[in-house]
Amino acid sequence: MRVADSLRDPRYYLVNFDNVLTWVSERYDDLLDDDERDFITRFQALPVPSRALLVRMVMRKGEHFRLDRLIYDEIGDARAALAPLVEQGLVDDSPCLTLDHLFDLFTRDELVGMFRDHLPRPRDRKALLKEALAPMFEQAFQPDDWRTAAGQPIAASVVRLTVMPVCERLRLMFFGNLRQQFSEFVLADQGIYRFEVVPFTPDSRAFQSREDIERYWQIHACRERFETGGDMEEVLAALPECIGDSVWLEARRGRVIYAIARHCERQGELVRAAELYGRSGHGEARIRRIRVLERLGEHQQALALCVAVQEAPTSEAERQQAARIQPRLHRALGMEKPSSVADAPVRRCDLTLPRSGCVERAVREHLETPEAPVFYVENTLINALFGLLCWEAIFAPLPGAFFHPFQSGPADLMRPEFYPQREQHFQRCLARLETDAWRDTIQQRYREKQGIQSPFVHWGALSDELLTLALECLPPTHLRAWFERLLTDIRANRAGMPDLIRFYPHAPEGTPRYEMIEVKGPGDRLQDNQKRWIAFCACHDMPVTVCHVRWCDDEDAP
What we know:
Blueprint: H1 12-27, H2 34-44, H3 48-58, E1 64-66, H4 78-87, E2 91-92, H5 99-105, H6 108-114, H7 126-133, H8 143-150, E3 158-161, H9 164-175, H10 183-189, H11 210-227, H12 232-238, H13 247-266, H14 270-279, H15 285-295, H16 299-311, H17 316-332, E4 347-353, H18 359-367, E5 374-376, H19 380-389, H20 391-394, H21 418-431, H22 437-448, H23 464-473, H24 476-488, H25 490-493, E6 500-503, E7 514-520, H26 528-539, E8 544-551, H27 552-556
Helix pairs in contact: 1-9, 3-4, 11-12, 11-13, 13-14, 14-15, 15-16, 15-17, 16-17, 19-24
């Protein structure tokens, strides 16, 4: 796909939009509905200025636009460009407008001029003006009727783009989500973002059926209705039924139900919250349901669910939280405290340092020596090494993983099927850790892929010095253990790693040649994901230290 040059071609956005329509037409020909086909046909038959004006509107916010603000040099006369759009029904030049529309489109001074006969205090702020006018103008009017209703004409001609829902569906089919905007083309053209080139197969598309498109759209609409204050029960009724044939759509549906359940919990509607948590497949839903049942006094039911979680947890985080809750439930039921496995001991370091604005930097500067350099890496280094070593597995062109040129990673990265579908690819990559090839592979990827978007590699956090020391000092057995843990739960395990790493490049053979250091300032405590990473390292005899810092002046305080 050719991305238009936004600096040389003034109609770059039109070229890019044409690319989207061509891409979608080729890959979704069997799934397009009549409205989408009709729009593509009518759009392609328009004069170039009209097509350009329509795309300008599509890429702006909302559906309503002031004609006097649709001024673009490369389009010319906006009214002339608008006429074919109105004739084709793609734009309405006399739309019904509510008071909200007017307050979105016009300035305070323009509104005062329009409603001067109805405003007792015209000097009020815009929000207060709207509040005063709302009871008088609850109805929507066409522009000419607003002149009669308000006593004055509106300040400029307003048009409405009638095909925005169709354009949004086409954007959804192209990107596979509604998060990405058409601005991705410009960011790629200007080199702000660079993406890995992945070959597309005939089945490389986000949706395999029209039903999937409609269900995605339905879930998205329900989420928006809920987030903008829509009736909770109406939103729930509008959601599709359980989607058994699509894991990722069911996960999206489950997130909406989870959000509504959280709202019910916060409002004190605990019985309803518990019921909704039970219907959601969200990763935190079972733990929240246990907590709600505990608050309701349903301790036996909460304990049964708590045990089920620990026997078959969906993640380490879920197991950890259930283990924390279970002793409380045992006490409430008069039962003995459940047995627990003691965590492996973790080395602790206490430092008293001069006060600094950044506690991690203060510790790094205190510990660093020429023989033992210290770097602030937090979650970046291990993720980057994994991303570089396993680059071809992450970007393997599997069906449903890549379906447009602007993906920083596979679409199924956070889904349970991500690793199983690529197990052989990852095993080939990890097998390099058993030979001397792994260092060369990482160095080569670092040089070849520099700056290309990746879900694991934050290029700004890497340097030649850091990478060289990491490859020299980190044992491949430790790298393999970290990488395999990442693959068990990418969403949770990409975070929580220690803040600092200290290298000992000149240490005698057979001794630890690095140390990871988690820094905690005054009053700071380990978070759950940090505890899990530290416990994992301790269990595998990986050198990790928790450094607790106090400031010198705190010791002097009475």
